[in-house]
Design goal:
about 625 residues; alpha+beta; Arc Repressor Mutant, subunit A; 5-stranded antiparallel beta sheet; 5-stranded mixed beta sheet; about 25% strand; elongated
């Protein structure tokens, strides 16, 4: 019998390739179907293809059967503990018998298997390569030294123990019964998926869970690995929750128009700490002063590129992740020092309140910082009264031109660390007439900048908006404001001026927040280059950079909205007995849309009583899903 087996082995070693041979192609089994000149047509897992003899190696002369059967046989052996154990034992005995002598694949196969068939050939080849006793390939195998075999077996045993530990963890994960913090080392890929840093999770796949950021988030909450307060949305939108870290250089010494003899007013919310605009009236000209970081941020410099990649300062309830370094505020924000440097827009208005003349200047100014509440109390003060009058005229002018004014309740959400859990505050934003005044000042500055740039032939950023589709039967009250908001079109940003229908302006640009918005910063850079007699950036370069910055800014807006909703849902979860007022803003049979002023949220609810638009109902949160950012409100 042994002589017959050796004869078979010698025939394997010396035969030529022919039909039905089982061969190796790219270290996988293949069948030879026919010979075609100096090539062979083979069938592999990848389909049929023609190869040269140097690309294949003989596993068995055959005749071999179906390739699928060969794969199935190997998979069966490797998954069946007893069959695999028998072959491993025979291979270890062959290793001892050879005592360090090299051997061929066919000879080694003959020592391990009494039935060296085509079906068995691929199984044995896999066995020889995946077990510790031999090293090599189809060209020959060499027994490993005993010390090396022992080391491999030790590693395999350790790997087996690790696999057992992981399987025990997967079992606990399925039951949401983790052993923390020990199991934390297995949760990293789930966390990466929840944060948008990966689109797959091997751990979730092994446990049979759907691989999605929302499902990963839920799993992290259900297992207690994350608290409900963890906000993944900035990271999921590719944004950092830390401010830019490269501080701007100190403002340069340069010639500036000294306006320190006139008080300029920086008016903002009580929580604002990065003032970047101030206003004044000298009896003839309206002055709108804007922070001047463009004095040191050179186009396409590292700081400029970093700001472009952020697009805007990210404002979330946890705080601000600034587009420009936090430490730079003391040099560039207005009113934080006795004298501030600004890029100022000087505007002369005609009798109708329209812009008759505009200019741009580098200035030194003295700024007094006050809140909206304080400014409202000074409405009739000679220092602020002219500004309120200018604002009223500008609003009337825009309204006659078709401007749309929407007033829906707003909230300010803040989160303060403290105690066992953060303190969440949802405060309704109080409406101040001085906020309207400041808005009109900023719109005048944006219009003046756009007209100045257009007149001076400076490539510039323009913001436009198409006419809204306002329904003819617009209801009164909050319902009308809700319908009005839904009728508005999206804004557009480009380098060609066009009407901004929503503002009632024929030409408009945003220039009043260069510390917070990249588009405003690049507009300032263009104006400064022009004032210095240098060539501004070309239109195509501007358009490319504006588009990049605007895309990043839109991601920030998306993250801000998601973060605000996240913290609203956390607050509702922590306050399960909350009941709030809601105003009916839309009706469809018994299904109505309500606006909840206390949360600045809209919701659809099923209602059992007869209601009219603008009626008040009471609602409560019945089902909250923080991972899905969803909440079901019901009538209380």
């Amino acid at each position: 019998m042994y002589i017959l087996k050796l004869a078979l082995i010698h025939r394997i070693l010396n035969c030529m390739f022919s039909e039905k041979n089982l061969v190796l192609y790219k270290n996988q089994p293949a069948l030879i179907l026919e010979r075609d000149g100096d090539k062979y047509l083979i069938e592999s897992q990848g389909g049929q293809k023609k190869v040269r003899d140097k690309d294949i190696a003989l596993l068995h002369p055959g005749p071999a059967g179906q390739l699928k059967e060969i794969y199935t046989h190997a998979d069966t052996v490797f998954s069946a503990g007893e069959q695999l154990a028998l072959r491993r034992k025979a291979l270890e005995e062959a290793w001892e018998l050879l005592d360090g002598a090299d051997t061929s694949f066919a000879e080694l196969a003959g020592l391990v298997s009494a039935d060296f068939s085509p079906l068995e050939a691929w199984t044995l080849y896999r066995l020889f390569q995946e077990t510790p006793w031999f090293t090599g390939d189809i060209n020959g195998f060499a027994p490993r030294p005993a010390q090396e075999v022992a080391a491999i077996q030790s590693r395999e045993a350790e790997k087996g123990r690790e696999q057992d530990i992981r399987q025990e963890f997967i079992g606990r994960l399925k039951k949401n019964q983790l052993q923390l913090p020990e199991d934390g080392k297995f949760m990293q890929d789930i966390e990466a998926l929840a944060l948008g840093k990966s689109d797959k999770s091997k751990t979730m796949k092994e446990a049979g869970f759907k691989e999605s950021p929302e499902r990963a988030h839920k799993l992290l909450l259900d297992t207690g690995y994350w608290p409900i307060t963890r906000n993944p949305h900035p990271a999921r939108n590719g944004l950092s929750m830390l401010s830019a870290d490269e501080r701007l250089a100190s403002p340069p010494e340069e010639e500036r128009l000294d306006l320190t003899g006139m008080t300029s007013w920086a008016i903002d919310n009580e929580w604002s700490n990065d003032p970047d605009d101030a206003v004044a009236f000298d009896g003839r000209y309206l002055w709108v002063h804007i922070a001047d970081p463009a004095s040191t941020v050179v186009p396409d410099s590292p700081i400029d590129i970093a700001a472009r990649n952020r697009g805007a300062t990210l404002y979330i309830p946890e705080g601000a992740a600034r587009m420009l370094a936090e430490e730079s505020l003391e040099d560039y924000a207005l009113g934080l020092a006795p004298v501030s440097r600004a890029l100022s827009f000087r505007i002369l208005l005609d009798e109708a309140g329209a812009i008759a003349e505009s200019g741009v200047f580098k200035t030194l100014i003295h700024v007094s910082r006050i809140t909206y509440r304080q400014a409202d109390g000074m409405k009739d003060d000679p220092a602020l009264a002219p500004l309120f009058a200018i604002a009223d005229r500008n609003f009337e002018r825009r309204e006659k031109a078709g401007a749309v004014s929407i007033e829906l309740p707003e909230v300010h959400i803040s989160v303060c660390a403290g105690g066992n859990e953060p303190q969440i505050r949802i405060e309704q934003v109080e409406h101040f007439s001085s906020a309207d005044m400041v808005r009109e000042m900023m719109l005048l500055a944006g219009e003046a900048a756009a007209r100045y740039a257009f007149r001076s032939n400076i490539p510039f950023l323009y913001v436009s908006q198409e006419q809204p589709d306002i329904p003819s039967n617009l209801p009164e009250g909050l319902a009308g404001q809700y319908r009005l908001r839904r009728s508005m079109k999206s804004r557009r940003v480009g380098v060609t001026p066009s009407d901004h229908a929503g503002l009632g302006l024929g030409m408009y640009s945003q220039v009043t927040s260069p510390l917070r918005r990249y588009g405003d910063l690049i507009a300032h850079q263009q104006l400064r280059l022009f004032l210095a007699g240098q060539k501004p950036l070309a239109k195509d370069v501007m358009l490319e950079w504006i588009s990049m910055g605007d895309a990043a800014a839109q991601a920030a807006v998306k993250a801000e909205r998601a973060s605000n909703l996240h913290w609203t849902l956390v607050w509702l979860t922590l306050n399960p007995d909350w009941v709030g007022k809601a105003v009916v803003v839309e009706q469809k049979d018994r299904r109505v849309t309500v606006f909840i002023p206390e949360l600045a949220r809209e919701a659809q609810i099923q209602i059992n009583s007869e209601v009219q638009l603008n009626d008040t109902v009471y609602v409560r949160a019945a089902a909250i899903s923080i991972p899905e950012l969803s909440v079901l409100f019901t009538e209380a």
